[in-house]
Amino acid sequence: MNVDGLIVVDKPAGMTSHDVVSRIRRLAKTRRVGHGGTLDPMATGVLIIGVNRATRLLTYVIGSEKSYAGTIRLGQSTVTDDAEGDVTTTASTAGVTDEAIRAGLAVQVGEIDQVPSAVSAIKINGQRAYKRVRDGETVEIPARRITVHRLEVLDIRRPDGADVIDIDVDVTCSSGTYIRAIARDLGTSLQVGGHLTALRRTAVGGLTLDAALTLEQLEERAPDVIGLPISDAARRAFPERVATEEETRVLRHGGPLATVGIDGPYAVFSPEGEVLAIVSERDGRARAEIVLLPA
């Protein structure tokens, strides 16, 4: 596999994000592989893998908004706030109405302070929170300001023979949002407990499941070139600016460009369509944050 770009992987359940990185390293025959935002082992869906030069794009991928389809179960709390952890408490959901569920989710839309799950990869005093919990410690993680742009209830089900409620949701949110914390906080607000039973990431920024390949598909196609070449990846992930021949020369020599009024980082391309750099405008100039010219 001769790759110098982004690969959109449809991650299977049961694998860590690092497991996927290791598999791509073997297929691509390079150590320069990274991922653009961790998915829990239980979760499936879009995991962005950067290979070679494209690993430099991952900082921006990690910060992109993300979309998920998930299922929340009310009536049970777990130690991990998802189905991977042991059930810690149960409560009857007989008195929980659909209206109360919708109201409990509605207050989690917009800019909110969210406390991440205690069993997470966040570092507390230099050590991962999940390791402290597994060592028997009680971990308190400070709240973080996140944004839930959209939280749509798709279905509310009450399975026969089980005193639980399952809620299918569709969420678009900022980087750093924990969907299992949304489930936990809904259960807490309704006083019945809650956790996440299924999660599928459907998009990271402009990179969606329609561009994703399974690991089996990647294995079958290797050693052919797979994924989005770095210029195509930059087009999907950033606003686009095409440089003139003179501007291309300036960028190649490390100089700034004139501003054009594009907010946030954007990709600059040569007249031939080759991505040159990721640029941000500040202090009246457009300056390269990373240069992506071939070595």
TrEMBL record:
<dbReference type="GO" id="GO:0003723">
    <property type="term" value="F:RNA binding"/>
</dbReference>
<dbReference type="InterPro" id="IPR015947">
    <property type="entry name" value="PUA-like_sf"/>
</dbReference>
<dbReference type="InterPro" id="IPR020103">
    <property type="entry name" value="PsdUridine_synth_cat_dom_sf"/>
</dbReference>
<dbReference type="InterPro" id="IPR002501">
    <property type="entry name" value="PsdUridine_synth_N"/>
</dbReference>
<comment type="similarity">
    <text>Belongs to the pseudouridine synthase TruB family. Type 1 subfamily.</text>
</comment>
<dbReference type="InterPro" id="IPR032819">
    <property type="entry name" value="TruB_C"/>
</dbReference>
<feature type="domain" description="tRNA pseudouridine synthase II TruB subfamily 2 C-terminal">
    <location>
        <begin position="238"/>
        <end position="292"/>
    </location>
</feature>
<protein>
    <recommendedName>
        <fullName>tRNA pseudouridine synthase B</fullName>
        <ecNumber>5.4.99.25</ecNumber>
    </recommendedName>
</protein>
<feature type="active site" description="Nucleophile">
    <location>
        <position position="40"/>
    </location>
</feature>
<dbReference type="InterPro" id="IPR036974">
    <property type="entry name" value="PUA_sf"/>
</dbReference>
<keyword id="KW-0819">tRNA processing</keyword>
<dbReference type="GO" id="GO:1990481">
    <property type="term" value="P:mRNA pseudouridine synthesis"/>
</dbReference>
<feature type="domain" description="Pseudouridine synthase II N-terminal">
    <location>
        <begin position="25"/>
        <end position="179"/>
    </location>
</feature>
<dbReference type="Pfam" id="PF09142">
    <property type="entry name" value="TruB_C"/>
</dbReference>
<dbReference type="Pfam" id="PF16198">
    <property type="entry name" value="TruB_C_2"/>
</dbReference>
<dbReference type="GO" id="GO:0031119">
    <property type="term" value="P:tRNA pseudouridine synthesis"/>
</dbReference>
<comment type="function">
    <text>Responsible for synthesis of pseudouridine from uracil-55 in the psi GC loop of transfer RNAs.</text>
</comment>
<keyword id="KW-0413">Isomerase</keyword>
<dbReference type="GO" id="GO:0160148">
    <property type="term" value="F:tRNA pseudouridine(55) synthase activity"/>
</dbReference>
<feature type="domain" description="tRNA pseudouridylate synthase B C-terminal">
    <location>
        <begin position="180"/>
        <end position="220"/>
    </location>
</feature>
<dbReference type="Pfam" id="PF01509">
    <property type="entry name" value="TruB_N"/>
</dbReference>
<dbReference type="InterPro" id="IPR015225">
    <property type="entry name" value="tRNA_psdUridine_synth_fam2_C"/>
</dbReference>
<dbReference type="InterPro" id="IPR014780">
    <property type="entry name" value="tRNA_psdUridine_synth_TruB"/>
</dbReference>
